[in-house]
Specification:
mainly alpha, 3-stranded antiparallel β-sheet, about 5% strand, 2 domains
């Protein structure tokens, strides 16, 4: 098993030797804290309070743990000039984002500044070694609202269309209008919260995590991550179908409240199981493709 192509027999904590920080590195770290304290605290707040960003509560600690387990590459050498140049670019984008009060760019520049500090102290090869933690942190940064809205709308329509097709297959009379399903005696709205964007984001993040830990081949990693997209879209359409089916045949109250939320959780667990099954399959394909020597 590998993490970022490296053996899982990673060095223990006492075996990891972090370089003694130099005065310039200490100064850069202090400047980082001053510049990016606000984006960092607002990111933590969003992880805690925003349902669309809640996966950051998992990805952030996992990223730190993976970086700690991987440790510092033996013989790593810092590249101060390159690190300082990237840090200045990050500070510039942080300044521009503050003028526009644009949180996504602020947070992205914070991640870029972290990369710059790593390069300053340990070089580009260390960033490559930590590609998985950095990717997980990047995925935990919430997208701008305008991007989320533009992504959610087509997902709403697709989920509604798939749910309607399945309901018609079960001979449920309905009328489809955009993201609205008109059933006998009940109208169902597929809202932005039910678009499947949250589950898609979570599944993509899990796909990156699983592929980075258990797969070594870059192509198979990409395949697993891409497979998370149709799984999320398909099962969200199934969720719309289940809601309409239960509302029509069982009880109209099943389309709201606790039962509706429970359906969402059940569907996500199924999606996670499907993604895990595909990962298991790809692991065996990889073993046949690249047998251990």
């Amino acid at each position: 098993m590998t993490v970022a192509g490296l053996s899982l027999a990673l060095p223990r904590v006492q075996d990891i030797r972090f370089r003694k920080p130099s005065p310039p590195l200490i100064a850069a770290a202090i400047a980082f804290a001053v510049l990016f304290w606000s984006p960092f605290t607002t990111l933590l707040r969003d992880w805690w309070s925003d349902p669309d960003a809640g996966h950051g509560l998992l990805l952030g600690p996992v990223a730190l743990y993976l970086a700690w387990k991987s440790g510092i590459q033996e013989g790593a050498r810092g590249q101060p000039r390159l690190g300082l140049a990237i840090l200045l670019v990050a500070a510039f984008f942080r300044y521009l984002a503050s003028l526009a009060a644009e949180l996504f760019t602020m947070r992205a520049s914070m991640l870029l500044a972290i990369v710059a500090l790593v390069i300053y102290a340990y070089g580009v090869r260390q960033v490559i070694r930590w590609w998985l933690p950095f990717t997980l942190v990047a995925l935990s940064i919430p997208l701008p609202s305008v991007v989320l809205s533009s992504l959610a709308l087509p997902l709403q329509f697709k989920a509604t269309q798939m749910g309607a097709a399945l309901l018609e297959w079960r001979q449920v009379p309905l009328r489809l209008s955009g993201n609205v399903l008109q059933l006998p005696g009940r109208t169902l709205f597929v809202t932005e919260a039910c678009s499947g964007l949250r589950s898609l984001t979570a599944l993509l993040s899990l796909g990156v995590l699983i592929s980075g830990i258990w797969l070594r081949t870059p192509l198979l990693r990409v395949v697993l991550i891409l497979l998370a997209i149709p799984i999320a879209v398909l099962l969200n359409g199934v969720r719309v179908f289940l809601t309409g089916f239960l509302v029509h045949f069982v009880n109209p109250r099943l389309g709201d409240g606790f039962m509706h939320m429970t359906e969402g959780w059940v569907v996500f667990v199924i999606a996670f199981g499907m993604l895990g099954g595909l990962a298991w399959l790809l692991i065996h394909v990889e073993r046949l493709w690249r047998p251990a020597t």
